[in-house]
From TrEMBL:
This is Protocatechuate 3,4-dioxygenase, beta subunit. Keywords: Dioxygenase, Oxidoreductase, Plasmid. PANTHER family: DIOXYGENASE, PUTATIVE (AFU_ORTHOLOGUE AFUA_2G02910)-RELATED (PTHR33711), INTRADIOL RING-CLEAVAGE DIOXYGENASES DOMAIN-CONTAINING PROTEIN (PTHR33711:SF10). It is an enzyme of class 1 (oxidoreductase). Residues 80-108 form the Intradiol ring-cleavage dioxygenases domain.
């Protein structure tokens, strides 16, 4: 097969992702590798099933306001929506997208979260959905609050939502997070500062989308996830994408 038959080769910009060792982000000092990396090929079990079936998605799985107890969570109601795309801008259907986040006060429902903000008894903080035929996804949730974290004396995480994207099998998983347009804490976050290019930071910021906002109900933010290529989203667990 010729190069033309295979399609164009997309060269990746290795500077798009941060260095593994970034002292400003304290945790990286113990996690960063100090020996040469070894490339390991994927196994058959990683490239194939098991896969997540559509019948396993519940009616309220993508509604974080109601899916924990059936009673509404407290906070500013928002829609987070977008598309999962390949390097050519084509939507990827049937992708399992999961999210998790802090509540409106900036606290996670986790036993090790010791922040003083109260827990919302009606907010579990996680949801899931499958992308539609055009790669689209949508979640109804509350805007997460910012919160302090023990990195330096007074570091705060911006408002953000974590997103997990699964491929054709559970061994293919990418994790990223989105921030929100206009948040002044984005520029101050030591984790964000590890990303060397402003354009790479910009694709992690979900812009306000008034076209999808619901009057007298909720605002909307649009966050597309690009799996591969030069414009791929920054993924926390793998540089190359799927």
């Amino acid at each position: 097969m010729t190069t033309t038959d295979q399609g164009p080769l997309y060269f990746r910009d290795r500077d798009w992702h941060p260095a593994a060792y970034t002292p400003g982000y304290k945790t990286s000092m113990t996690r960063a590798p100090f020996r040469p990396l070894v490339s390991l090929g994927s196994t058959l079990s990683e490239e194939t099933g098991p896969a997540f079936g559509q019948a396993m998605i519940g009616e309220l799985d993508n509604n974080l306001i109601m899916n924990f107890t059936g009673q509404p969570a407290i906070g500013e109601r928002i829609i987070l929506h977008g598309r999962v795309l390949d390097e050519n801008g084509r939507g990827v259907p049937g992708v399992l997208v999961e999210i998790w986040q802090a509540n409106a006060g900036g606290r996670y429902r986790h036993k090790k979260d010791g922040y003083l903000a109260p827990l919302d008894p009606n907010f579990g903080g996680c949801g899931r959905t499958l992308t539609d035929a055009s790669g689209g996804y949508e979640f109804l949730t509350v805007r997460p609050g910012a919160y302090p974290w023990p990195n330096r004396v007074n570091d705060w995480r911006p408002m953000h939502i974590h997103l997990s994207v699964f491929g054709s099998g559970f061994g293919q998983r990418l994790i990223t997070q989105n921030y929100f347009e206009g948040d002044p804490l984005i520029a101050r976050c030591p984790i964000v500062q590890t990303i060397g290019q402003q354009k790479a930071i910009d694709v992690l910021v979900a812009p306000l989308d008034m076209n999808r906002a619901i009057p007298m109900d909720c605002l909307a933010y649009k966050f597309d996830i690009v799996l591969r290529g030069r414009r791929q989203s920054y993924f926390e667990n793998r540089k190359e994408g799927l």
